[in-house]
Write a structure and sequence with these properties.
Blueprint lengths: L18 H10 L1 H14 L1 H7 L4 H29 L1 H19 L5 H14 L1 H14 L5 H28 L4 H22 L22 H5 L4 H6 L4 H9 L2 H30 L4 H8 L1 H19 L5 H25 L5 H57 L6 H35 L1
Length: 445
């Protein structure tokens, strides 16, 4: 009788099932590290400006240079991250930003401050691109909405917590230089933890690589690859081919337009809200603390958007974006109206409205450079796609910060916000139309 051998599946290390959780936890610390090097500048502008003898125009120019460096990094790092991998891009970005932030504490002139800020901002983009690359390797596409929303939500939770923490350190009597040393140390610690614990591929710990979205621009080949060796065997397409594919993808241009609008609105409130609250009668420390409600209220809205994107399997992206942007437009109109026609609008009304804006604007922004970029670019081009999409948002931020000193009051700033919200709403409507046309074409074929 012929002997039949039963081939048993490869055994998995007992601790292997823990690795996806470990990866997510470490990537959630991205928000702690990035906000540590950002919030100290956003919240300590007045103290830095006075200590370094800078004018308001100098501060605006410094922020604009930082945005330009960040935007350039988004474009420059995309192909590099896709080529070298996510882990070391992530670690190098956090470490470089932390070292540059340490330089703030020893800056003696406005030019030195501008240089340190530019270096820090140029180092930061690779972290998000590396994060997106790692997620695309570890998790299936139908979980991307929840995962990106969770990690992005932690960015805003840490943002709010750090703003409260920086406010507490200011009240305790710490100088801005001492606060910089504390926040830079936090970012450096996260970089070290990531270097030791983070893993690039599931195959590094004996796990299979999950499938990606079969409807990405890279087609079924990307979706059916499994294991680490398939990456080296198939190889990423040439950069020129990847760019050509993106240029001819309508979804790519719609998402870039959307993120230009909502990303600029987000940056305006992150950078300008504390100043707006001070102009409405709040003290400096109170304004810093209350400005934390904007990102904090964005967290539940972001989690809801991520859940809905996964729940409807990407078939209702346009409707989700359009509803968010429609509510955003209404809230922006009310905020502009009370600032325009009320002599002294109540502080609580401004906080409530700006918190509501945070609830609806952060979801479309965070998902655009995350889950939408993963779906459009696929596993091989996710960092390139995310970088180009995120770059779109910082074009508007650069223009705003460079011209903010020419805007006379809050009313003019809110007019800019209102115009951006109108554009975002129509971008959502266009996404609905394109999505319905694609579904109709599939049914006909």
């Amino acid at each position: 009788m012929k002997r039949i051998e039963v081939i048993k599946p490869l055994s998995r290390p007992p601790q292997a099932s823990r690795w996806p959780t470990i990866v997510v936890v470490i990537l959630c610390l991205y928000g702690l590290a990035m906000n540590s090097v950002r919030d100290v500048v956003y919240t300590q502008q007045s103290s830095m400006q006075e200590s370094l003898h800078m004018t308001t125009s100098d501060t605006s120019n410094t922020l604009a240079v930082g945005y330009a460096a960040y935007a350039i990094g988004k474009i420059a790092y995309g192909p590099i991250v896709d080529a070298v991998g996510g882990k070391w891009s992530f670690v190098a970005s956090l470490g470089g930003a932390a070292l540059a932030t340490f330089g703030f504490a020893f800056a003696k002139t406005g030019h030195a401050y501008m240089l340190c800020w530019a270096v820090s901002r140029f180092a930061q983009p690779a972290a998000w691109l590396g994060l997106a690359k790692i997620l695309s390797q570890w998790f299936p596409y139908h979980q991307m909405g929840k995962l990106f929303s969770l990690i992005s939500a932690m960015v805003y939770v840490f943002d709010a917590c750090l703003r409260f923490g920086i406010s507490g350190m200011s009240k305790a009597g710490l100088t801005w230089r001492e606060i910089v040393l504390v926040t830079a140390s936090v970012a450096a610690l996260v970089a070290v933890v990531s270097m030791v614990l983070l893993r690039e591929h599931p195959a590094d710990v004996g796990l299979p690589r999950p499938p990606t979205n079969p409807h990405t621009t890279e087609g079924a080949t990307d979706a059916t690859e499994t294991g680490r060796d398939s990456v080296h065997r198939s190889g990423a397409p040439p950069l020129r081919q990847q760019l050509g594919r993106l240029v001819h993808t309508v979804d790519f241009w719609l998402v870039c337009t959307l993120v230009f609008m909502v990303g600029t609105v987000r940056e305006i409130f992150l950078c300008y809200l504390s100043e707006m609250l001070r102009a409405s009668g709040a003290s400096s420390s109170t304004a810093i603390a209350l400005s934390g409600t904007f990102p904090l209220l964005g967290v539940p809205g972001l989690m809801l958007s991520g859940y809905l994107v996964d729940h409807y399997d990407r078939k209702r992206n346009g409707e989700i974006v359009a509803v968010n942007c429609g509510v955003l437009l209404v809230l922006a109109m009310i905020l502009w109206w009370i600032k325009q026609f009320m002599a002294s609008p109540p502080l609580c009304a401004i906080v409530i409205l700006t918190s509501g804006i945070g609830f609806v604007v952060i979801g479309p922004y965070a998902l655009s450079a995350g889950v939408f970029a993963t779906d459009i670019g696929g596993r091989h081009s996710v960092a390139l796609t995310a970088g180009l999409i995120d770059f779109s948002s910082y074009v508007g931020a650069i223009v705003f910060t460079a011209t903010k000193s020419k805007l006379n009051n809050d009313k003019q700033v809110l007019l800019v916000v209102l115009a951006l919200c109108i554009g975002a709403f129509f971008s959502g409507l266009a996404m609905i139309r394109v999505g319905r046309r694609r579904q109709r074409d599939k049914q006909l074929s």
